[in-house]
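hey so u asked for the seq, here:
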Amino acid sequence: MGKVALITGVTGQDGSYLTELLLAKGYAVHGMMRRASVFTTERIDHLYQDRHEGDVRLRLHYGDLLDAISVRRIISEVKPDEVYNLAAQSHVRTSFDQPVYTAEVVSIGTVHLLEAIRDYRDSTGKEVRFYQASSSEMFGKVRETPQTEYTPFYPRSPYACAKVHAHWQTVNYREAYGLFACNGILFNHESPRRGETFVTRKITRAAARIKFGLQDRLFLGNLDAKRDWGFAGDYVDAMWRMLQQEDPDDYVVATGESCSVREFLDEAFSSLDLDWHDCVEIDPRYLRPTEVDVLLGDASKARDILGWKPTLTMRQLCRMMVDADLQLAEQERTLADASHLV
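ran it, structure tokens below
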């Protein structure tokens, strides 16, 4: 019998890649998702299509981290060996507009989950291993470069503040109650499944649409912000590796290379023989009240202990995303042409 995993945020970018990874390793995967008026499962629909009849290893459960009762119910029903908490209001700029909601979901939601796991363990005697998705945004106004597991946090957004709270709650439950609980301090990680409001995907999506004549302008914020960008498919492997260790611990997951939004723009547009200067405009609405200027991670600990390393450079990742968005733009153009013929 394979292991059982529960993933919150299963329909997101990381959730979909992690689901693929765990299914390939023989896990039964359960995902928790909020009830919405529209379906949000497009990132994992192919995993249902690929399942064998009579061998359903992916199941979804309606629940909400803000509803402690539903969290406890799902933990009790699923009886997981591992829990991966990937759910969040994860858009940093949006967190300034929705600070209370962001804090509730990210920080209090994590406590609901930790409490449910602790109570389940105490009542059944079964160990549940827990992964918390911490963020490089917690370093904020960085105190040293590169950032390691020992770099002090200086959060610069409601999102980052909430992540710091959830991070230390996870450490506290590990030390106070003996939970097997790990924090993965993940630096920016992208993919063709990245939400279109995040800057990397916003850039590659726009570049492809501009190439096909489907739009002519792209509005962005701070082009000088520098980030350590990696591939989401690599980073979920690090999550899994953390929960396979003998002892729980916290790990930075990063590529060790940093580049600016401007450099990412150059790579995306030049790959399509476009000049972004002709179509990009700065919109103050996309500027943060407090900016994080540069993030650069040192993943030596993950490399040495977990045996983990990234497989894609920023340029390879950018080209992957551009290629995927070119296919989407081509489909969009075909549909637009067809509609003109009706």
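The chain is about 45% helix and 15% strand. Residues 234 and 310 are 6 Å apart (CA to CA).
lmk if thats what u needed
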